[in-house]
From TrEMBL:
The protein, known as: Class II glutamine amidotransferase
Domain Glutamine amidotransferase type-2: 1-155
InterPro entries: GATase_2_dom, Ntn_hydrolases_N
Species of origin: Bacteroides mediterraneensis
Keyword Cytoplasm assigned: no
Lineage: superkingdom: Bacteria
Amino acid sequence: MPTLDTLNKVQRINHHGYGFVSSKHRFKSMNYQRFLAHLSEVGIEEECIIHMRLATHGSKCRKNCHPFVENGVYFAHNGVLPIQSVNDMTDSEIFFRGQVYPLVMKYGYESKVTESMMMAAAGSSKFAMMYKGKVKLYGDYMKLNGVYYSNLRWL
């Protein structure tokens, strides 16, 4: 789990909404303090995806916070995809619902086909998914003090 100091630094540049999913908890909010309060309930043993949003597509609202979920498959994205926003959905949600989730349903969460297609689609983006408490990362993540980050711009 990132330290509070790290979370605060990340929040200063990614302040358009907050969300996380762990093996036992999930929460999305526009309120950073409420986000932190719920995140503090996550145990050290839990796999967790944390996302702090910097809006590029779609409005700044709770429904556009990551991670997105469909039948227990969670998805978060950092980057910009060449997708036109529709009905105030983010590029990330459109990609997840239209391509990622159907891929997982057809081939399986941990299949070689899913792995290969997700890595190819990531490009310069970063994708994080969770299903049944297991996290998969796609793209060039960096590890710092045992935590994976999609970027280190907050340093």
